[in-house]
Structures are given as structure tokens and as C-alpha cells.
Here is the input.
Amino acid sequence: MKTALVVGASGGMGYALVNELVSRNIHVKAFARNKEKLVALFQHHKNVEIISGDAFNEQEMMKASNGVDVIFHAISFPYQDWAKQHNRCLDMVIKIAEKQGAKIALVDNIYAYGRQSTNRITEETRKEPQTKKGKIRLAMENKLKESNIPSLIVHLPDLYGPNAENTILYETLKKVAQGKKANFVGNMQVKREFLYTVDGAKAMVELALRDDTYNQNWNVPAVHTITGEELVKILRDITGYKKGIRTVSKGMIRLIGIFSPSMKEVVEMLYLTEKPVILSGEKYEKEIGMLPGTSYRVGLEETIKWMNKRVLK
Here is the structure.
């Protein structure tokens, strides 16, 4: 891979992917709608070509993808727009990849796995999603597999990290960094996975650089599971944060959802905070090597540092 296109480069995983690709001396075309944000993120990066455009515009996508070897599909949409936009966007990426002779690496989540009773979910685990959003993600996976494009489908748990603003943990971290009263979504005694975006990008780029990893699914788990209480303890140690943290329940989100379409869409995914889907990284470690494993302390320190520099000015 000499040149890569990152679609959705202004998001959390998109930003991490651009940085990881550049660190491996790969020329990156960073594509997103908001040029101002792209410039703020990448103007000082060597080997990054900033391209603002619309992922639904074939002409703009063709121009952006000219000469690329791999298209990293890292774009997402507000929950309320998933049904209308996700599969349509993937159709465009597949069409462009086919015309350009490029491969596709899809940033995916765990929604398609649905509710699971086993301890660690492997790539062979049967996918039977019960939620609308899980069914959309499974439809995307099947659409990509049915195409003729060499592709990677990389399943990632909940994310956190620099520039990862559209995550369940972001508002908690932001309020802690600001020294304001914070909320935490879900039971604080339940062990869950939160993957540092930098680790996710390292694993995904490693997969994309190999020829024998395509046309497969890959799980990339977090360094280990952790409870909300353990996360908060680390945050207090890092920042000196003294305020209490309120647990946000399903009932509270339902109430907020009466007034907010985006919050209404969150409710069906809250089972993941009660009975989390925990990924197995055994396949990656057996076939590729050791998974990147930044400790929560280091990952949270770097994320808070980013917030203090960029977001909280």
C-alpha cells in the first residue's frame, strides 16, 4: 500500500487511521465534508492530502480516490440517519473501489453480533442482531462480502481517544476535563470494553497492509475489560477530579428521548451496557501477532491532554 483514502477522516477512528498510515510512510488522502476541521487536524502533517467533499457525490469520490490502493471506510452518521444513509454510502464506496481497483477496509462495531451469552465473541460467532442498528450493520457486512471487492471488516468495541467525539464515553471525559459534574452511561459495576482509537488504528492498518487478511472478519478487542468505577478512579488519579459522577439509566435516556431524536435512538443499544459483547482477539494474535494494548491510564491521559489542547479552549 502506497496511497490510502480515509473516508471520514475527521472522526475519531478516521483521525487515528490517518496518523497511523502516515507513521508508516503511506501517502494519505484525508476525506470528509468539513474542510475547516480537516485543516485543523492535519494542516501540519506531512504526507496528508486534505480533500473536502461529499461521500454521496460520485464525481468527488472518484477524484479523491484516484490512485489509491485501499479505501478506509471510517464514516458514520447520527443514529437517526442510519437507515437512510449507511447502506447508500457503502454502495458508493463499493462502486468507487470497483472503478479504481482499490480494496476496502471497513471500520465496524459490534452491533451485528446482537445479544450474546458466551464470554468471548469470535469472528465465527453467529450474528443474529435484534436491534435496527445491528441489522443495518449486518446488511452492510453482507453487501460488502457479496461484492467483488477485496475487503476487511474490522469489529471494534466502544471507542475513546483523541478526537473521538461521537462515543458513549466522550461526554464523561469532556466534563471531567472541564471539572464539571459528569454523567456515565450504564451500570458502573459492569465490566465493559473501551478500545483506544490509536490501538484500533494500529491493528487495522497492520491488517490492511497484508494480502492474506482480506475477505475476512477481524475482531480487535480492548486491552482488557473495565468497570465504570475503575475508569473513574483512573480519571480522578489523572486529573484530580473531585466531583461525583451520576449514572445515566435507560429510564433517564428514554425521558430525554422524548425531546431528542438522537437520544431516543440510543435506548435500543443500552443492552450493551448491561450485558456487554466482549470480543476475542485470539484470531488476530494467532495469525498476525500481539494486539496493540495501551493501558487505560495512558490512553485516558492522552485523550484528556487532547481535549485540553483542542476541544476545551
